[in-house]
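Entry for flavin mononucleotide complex. Fields follow.
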Amino acid sequence: MNTQLFPPWRQRLVRSLHLNRSQPQSRYYQVATVDGSGLPKNRTMVFRGFEDGNDNLLSITDRRSEKIIDWQEQENKTFELCWYFAKSREQYRVSGRAKLLFASDLPKYTAGEAENSQLIKTWIELSQNAQQAFYLDTPKTPFCDNSEISDIQGSDNNKLSTNIKKTNINNAEVIRNISENFVLVSFIAESVDYLNLRATPHERLLSDKSQSWQERKVFA
Ligand SMILES: Cc1cc2nc3c(=O)[nH]c(=O)nc-3n(C[C@H](O)[C@H](O)[C@H](O)COP(=O)(O)O)c2cc1C
């Protein structure tokens, strides 16, 4: 792929990911939302790559989680994520709007659309443990032992075993059995604030999609 077509922040980010690849935590960022009463909420999420054909950052989540509630209450579904790369001592603050793709909407897709969707591609790439989490009880409900995977009843249990045994199953089967709680979050960047602590003085670059991602060097 021709990286010249990518905005400067993405080219830099790809380089940061490469420089920090030995550290698993370099794929985690903190994502902030604002809840219905105006209070900030912040949590860690895993970066799962760029969406095919654009610069959106992908993560996954559970549709029953509070971040989804925050976004569903807001027309613009705003976010800011903060990503620190410890080895190269760089920070990216990316803000914009979140696009939510719900597995529960798959019945509205044509068979071809579903099969080629980023939602299904991302689900298939998850580890068994990551898939299993979507079949557990609702986040924040009191924990009890009978919520464990081994006790999941009926069709949910069948769905789980279909999905976690990845061998010898085709995409159509995965689509039929994917957890309804699975959500692919696509973070659409509108502004990027980059800080490099390695440089002396510290380097800070601001860029906005509305200004064709042209970078402005500012005091840190
Ligand atoms: C290292 C790490 C990675 C995490 N990755 C994710 C993730 O990719 N998606 C997610 O929904 N939650 C992830 N979590 C859990 C969230 O930080 C958070 O606790 C959970 O999503 C509930 O948040 P909410 O109720 O504010 O939505 C991760 C937590 C840690 C510590």
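NOTE: Confidence is low (pLDDT under 50) at residues 150-154.
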